[in-house]
Amino acid sequence: MEKFSELLKLDSNQLKDKINTLRKESLNLRFQKSSGQLEKTARISSVRKQIARIKTALSDIEKRKTK
Question: Of 19, 40, 58, 63, which residue is 20 to 30 A from 7 by alpha carbon distance?
Fold first, then answer.
């Protein structure tokens, strides 16, 4: 898990790539949960929070570009 300040140092393409990989991971975790194979259920909420954090960083970067 990265801090918000570390995310702001990345460019938007890198952040979008991170979102895509986290979405894939989220999908896999949901499948594992439904089949009863998931042991660490807290990982689902952790991934969701990471995605939200990255989206916030992306919007912050876009706002800085427009100013």
Answer: 40
Query: What is the extent of the structural domain holding 57?
Result: 4-66
How many domains would you assign to the chain?
A: 1
Q: Which two tokens stand for residue 16?
A: 């979008």
CATH number at residue 40: 1.10.287
Taking the chain (67 residues) in consecutive chunks of 10 residues, what is each chunk's mean pLDDT?
Answer: 87 95 97 95 96 96 86
